[in-house]
Amino acid sequence: MNKHTQWVVTVFFLTVISAFASTDLEADRKAIDQAHGTTEAIRSHFKKSLQKAFKEKGAVGALGECKIQAPQMGVQTGTWEVGRTSHKLRNPSNQPRAWLKPLLEEYQKTPVSQHQKQRLVILGPQHYGYVEPIYVEAVCLNCHGAQISSEVQKELKGLYPQDQATGFKLGDFRGLIWLESRSP
Ligand code: HEC
User: Fold this and answer.
1) Interval between CA 67 and ligand 1 midpoint (Å)
2) Is the minimum distance from the CB of 137 to ligand 1 under 6 angstroms?
3) Which of 82, 104, 113, 176 is most buried when burial is the number of CB atoms within 10 A of its CB?
4) What is the residue with the minimal CA distance to atom 35 of ligand 1?
C-alpha cells in the first residue's frame, strides 16, 4: 500500500469508528485533518532541528532539541494541546494522561507492523484526543539506544536521574505524539 492509499484507508476506517461514537461526522473528519496536520508539522520540525543540532553541536549539544516547543516550531496549537508520552520515559513530566494509558498499552502489546498509524478518541461532545505512534530512527539511537557515548550518558544522568528511555533498537515503538482539543 502506498502512503496515500494508506491515508485514505485510515481515514475511512476512522470515519467508520467515529460513526458509532458520534453523530457529527463532519466535525470528526475536520478534527482528524487538523490533528494530523499539526502532528506532521511537529515531526518535520523534529527531523530538521534534531539533525541540524546533532551535526553542528554533537549529541551533548543536541540534548535540548528533543522537546516539543510549539511556538518555535510554528505549530498552530490554538485549539489543541500537544505532547509526547511513552512506556519508557526520560522526563517524568511526559507521563500519559488517563485517556492515553490504555492506548499506550495497546500500542506496546501490538506488533509494529500492525499498528494503527492514527487514532481519534472521542472524549466528549466536540472533545477529541488524537495519537500517532513514534518509532526509533537511526539518529535517535545516539540518545535512546543501547550504546550511548559516555558523555551523553553522563549528561543524561545529571538531567534525568530516573531515565528509562534507553536500550531502544531501530524501528522500535518509542511512544506517542498526542493531541487533545481544548474546550470550545
Ligand atoms: C541528542 C539526544 C537525543 C536524540 C538524538 C533524541 N532524543 Fe528523544 N529525548 C532526549 C531528551 C533529552 C529527552 C527529554 C526531553 C524532555 O525533557 O522533555 C527526550 C525525550 C523523548 C521523548 C518524550 C518521552 C520521554 O521519554 O520523556 C520521545 C518520545 C523521544 N525523545 C523520542 C525520540 C525520537 C523518536 C528520536 C529520534 C527521531 C529522539 N528522541 C532523538 C534526547 C534525545
Assistant:
1) 7
2) yes
3) 176
4) 136
